[in-house]
Fold this protein.
Amino acid sequence: MSNAEIGLIGLGTMGAALALNIADKGFDIAVWNRTGTVTQDFAAGAGDLASKITATDTLEDLVAAIAKPRAIILMVPAGQPVDDQIAALRPLLDDDDMIIDAGNALFHDTNRRAREATGPFLGIGVSGGEEGARFGPSIMGGGKREYWDRVAHVLEAISAKYEGTPCATWMGEEGAGHFVKAVHNGIEYADMQMIAEVYGIMRDGMGMDADAIGKVFEGWNNGPLKSYLIEISGAVALAKDTSTGTPMLDMIVDAAGQKGTGRWTVIEAQQLAAPIPAIEAAVVARNLSSRVGERAAGEDLFGAAPQPIDGALDLAQLEGALIAGKVLCYAQGFTMIEAASEAFGWALPLPDIAKVWREGCIIRSDMLNDMAAALAEDPDRNLMYADRFADYLRGNHAALRAVVAVGATHGVAMPSLASGLAYFDAMRTARGTANMIQGQRDYFGRHGFVRMDNGAKDQHGPWAD
Ligand code: NDP
């Protein structure tokens, strides 16, 4: 029997949810998992969708169950498992059968796999976690356009919809989809970190309990900050531990995990010389958070910082700081995408990227619709200069400054918000201080500088003699 529309390998959290989503949208799907019992359990638990699913015991059976030309999704951990799975699968396939890596691959790996592939290959970024994969993720595709077009009807059908528009878009050749997914995750890190920083002011500076903080997030979710991350921050703060009845948040160790996509984004930003300080600070903050013992030793050594802020800020200022911070972090992410587009010759569609993030993914938010419109007007302009976002910054940068200043004077660390503010100030300063850097560089290394008065290049100071 070879009539399944598509195949899928890897029935873990994401693969199982994606397979059910595909079946739910009416497509016959054949599945296989390295550990066979997982496949059987998956099929047994598929309920009404079981008739759309062919569970197979071997890779050969999987391949035989799919209609030609075949398309098979890999949903296995990034890195070597993907290469191993491709190596095992490709010899069983016909020349025009397609492999689709839907995991969180490093885009350089996807570039390599696309170049080395002996048959059609796509790398697609999938965002939205388990629930997104089951009911509608955001999908960022990379590879040859003709390959994308072959499976676009399935990917669009299973994707999230924003007012009826599928959140599944082809981004460009080779690793373009996985690159865009990585930047998405970088923005996600910064968005989450800024929310956590404001939570810190409420908890440690204002002495608010988790319930009160949860209600504040709920309120903010009715305004300009309306987004999935603000929504779940409220839900997390309001949840109670079932065994003790105390707020769940207060029971969680303050050491953040990560799977590396934020780190990839930051490393790549450095390679591209793209300034994304709020995102970099968020990755640093996660690294630092894991040093639990050192932080405790630091508190013993120096004493806790004087955190209560005694009315120095109000909640409206915190909301304003988050609005400004969010604009600045997204502006940084999009300028990084633009830099990559040029460096890699990809022509990445910035307005479409904002559109594909409007639903399904972790950073979905109301603001992204306006960002899509602003980028459609002028994709080369930094978002922070577009009318709507310049207005947000004009209205809220004072709040951001106040929050960062109070955090500094009261010992509440806020690396991402502070980095966002420094970016804002640097990007609104026509004459900065790099003239001193250039003077220093010329002094010790005769690197030369450009003169202010006549634009002459390769000039040297009097110290050269
Ligand atoms: P899980 O750990 O839940 O599942 C991993 C799956 O891959 C299992 O089916 C496992 O099979 C299989 N697998 C593991 N190693 C190998 C191997 N060497 N060869 C073949 N199969 C293997 O992972 P997730 O579903 O969470 O993640 C899958 C991919 O999706 C990753 O790239 C992840 O980064 C990405 N992703 C995850 C998201 C999430 O929220 N979880 C969100 C977006 C993307 P077995 O049962 O035999 O162990």
Remarks:
- The beta strands are 6-9, 29-32, 53-55, 71-74, 98-101, 121-127, 138-143, 161-162, 165-166, 168-172.
